[in-house]
Design goal:
single chain; about 70 residues; alpha+beta; two-stranded antiparallel ribbon; 2 strands; about 40% helix; about 20% strand; globular; RNase H type-1 domain-containing protein
Length: about 70
C-alpha cells in the first residue's frame, strides 16, 4: 500500500491518497507513492513541490528521470 499526504506552505493538511499496489517490492511501493504525490500536486496546480520520502534511492531515481 502506497499512501501519503500533501501539506500547504503552512504545513496544514490539504490532500491524502492511498493506492493498493498489489504484490510488488518495497522500492516499487515508494516509487508509486512518489508518483501519486506528484500527480496529486500537479492536478491541484501546485508546481513548487518539496517531496519528502524516507527512501533516498527512490527520490534519486525520480530526480534523475524527471522531465518537466
Amino acid at each position: 500500500m502506497a499512501d501519503g499526504i500533501t501539506r500547504d506552505a503552512s504545513s496544514l493538511w490539504c490532500l491524502g491518497f492511498a493506492r493498493n499496489t498489489g504484490l510488488c517490492s518495497a522500492y516499487e511501493v515508494k516509487l508509486w507513492g512518489i508518483l501519486d504525490s506528484l500527480e496529486q500536486a500537479w492536478e491541484h496546480d501546485c508546481r513548487d513541490v518539496l517531496l519528502e520520502r524516507n527512501c533516498f534511492e527512490a527520490l534519486h531515481h525520480v530526480k534523475d528521470t524527471l522531465v518537466i
